[in-house]
Amino acid sequence: MASDLPMPRPFPHEPPGLKHDMVLAQASTREALGRQIARAHRGASAPLIMGILNATPDSFSDGGVYVQEASAAQRAMTLAQEGAAIIDIGGESTRPDSSPVPLETERARISAILEASVKTGCAVSCDTYKPDIARYAVKAGAVMINDVGGTAIDPAMVAVAAETGAFLVIMHGLRETAEGDVTDALSIFFEKAINRARSAGVASERIILDPGIGFNKSDAQNIGCFDALPTLRQRFDVPLLVGISRKSMLGRLTGRDVQGRLPASLAAATIAARQGAAIIRVHDVAPHVDAMRVTHALSAVTSGRRG
């Protein structure tokens, strides 16, 4: 059901020439990203790294760190310099027990980091389940909608993706549970969501699936998500995104607090890559870029693709 909240206010008026230039740059970025994702999906390149940039006071790992415009802009530049292909910005925490925020609050939170992230030249993604926020972000230069509601919280999200041509990440688990076999649960959920998106006019090459590790799942189910990746990749033939960075499951496995989970995050990302993930969503970009390059190179050797 579409939001009945008012549309967010647009950015201040820009001269027509600048707006035209932004639209052209956005289209170029979107097409270049499409080629990169397709290569990673085919296994012809290392998985792309999506760097996390939250403008929230309560996110589980970096809540309150990048709420100021200057720190957010510096962080966006750092993510780009470290090799992020995508910067994923968010204005509402989705950690367990977090509180929803009004649309206008979310819009205000992402405004500065959205502008700063677009200026880096990286592809920009907006992490939200609200169609109005997604539309606002794409209008301002984002090329990807990371729908943590999986098109199920507000089905109007598929219309925004179709209208704008943005990539659409469909994530499982924000409001759903995985009953029974996790692979079956994910397959059923994604089949419905993909059909919903395609029926609205979202191109198949713009769809990405995220199993939602850490969202309404037990540790056994979270581990099962890794086992499900090859099945999902084969069944739907669309790129897969995995977000495991610093998550609580890794803390329970290692006994480390959130700031001490980089080695565990790298290990999990490596497994996700070997299982077919095309995009890895992370807090620590530089070490993950290196890990994915090495994983890809060694995978090529062991599978006979070297050279």
Automatic annotation (TrEMBL):
It catalyses: (7,8-dihydropterin-6-yl)methyl diphosphate + 4-aminobenzoate = 7,8-dihydropteroate + diphosphate. CDD domains: DHPS (cd00739). It comes from the Bacteria. Its EC number is 2.5.1.15. Gene3D superfamilies: Dihydropteroate synthase-like (3.20.20.20). InterPro entries: DHP_synth-like, DHP_synth_dom, Dihydropteroate_synth-like_sf, Pterin-binding_dom. GO terms for molecular function: dihydropteroate synthase activity. Residues 47-293 form the Pterin-binding domain. It is an enzyme of class 2 (transferase). Pathway: Cofactor biosynthesis; tetrahydrofolate biosynthesis; 7,8-dihydrofolate from 2-amino-4-hydroxy-6-hydroxymethyl-7,8-dihydropteridine diphosphate and 4-aminobenzoate: step 1/2. Its cofactor is Mg(2+). Keywords: Folate biosynthesis, Magnesium, Metal-binding, Transferase. Belongs to the DHPS family. Catalyzes the condensation of para-aminobenzoate (pABA) with 6-hydroxymethyl-7,8-dihydropterin diphosphate (DHPt-PP) to form 7,8-dihydropteroate (H2Pte), the immediate precursor of folate derivatives. This is Dihydropteroate synthase. It comes from Candidatus Kirkpatrickella diaphorinae. The gene is folP.
